[in-house]
Amino acid sequence: MNLNILNEFRHALYRCFESARDSLFNCVDALLSETQAQSLVELSLSLFFERKWPSLYEAFEDGAVDRAELRQLFAKYAPHQEADSAWLGVGVAASNIARPQSPTAEGRGCLFVHNLPECSKPITYGWQFSMLAVLLKTTSSWCYVLELLRITTEQTAAQVAAEQLAALAKLDPQRMLVVADRYYF
Fold this sequence. Notes:
Blueprint lengths: L2 H14 E3 L1 H13 L6 H4 L10 H9 L1 E2 L1 H10 L10 E12 L10 E4 L10 E12 L9 E8 L5 H15 L3 E5 L6
Parallel strand pairs: 3-7
Antiparallel strand pairs: 1-2, 3-5, 4-5, 5-6
Helix pairs in contact: 1-2, 1-5, 2-4
């Protein structure tokens, strides 16, 4: 790994934060390094989080991120295919985060649950997200996530994916090969 590129990326990421920059940036480092945290208080115990635990709450409450600049940053540093390839492989997927015990959570919707054992209602309540990722030719368990957006109850997964792909097409002139499941057709 080239440390100059990593340093350049980290400085650009810091500039994407519009307010509460230091706390948000420390939070990013803590999230990347702390694998066992089960709460914000435990996350604040990371060696990379230099503040006291209440600043995590402040960062998420007062912090703001320039999404357009963040999208440009991730597109700029996306791993591209070999020089002989004219295509950028992109995968799009929608996934659910179930929160059936949170009736007061804002924006919660009714979600279909796949592959449940026999039950009377294959639904739950929670949020849905759309992920856009670069697909590489080399086989790996790792992928480069370009963007993760929440799918509101007024939108469909296909609408959000179309917006994500249109925004990526403006940033990266390379032709895209999009991989999606039948859910998007």
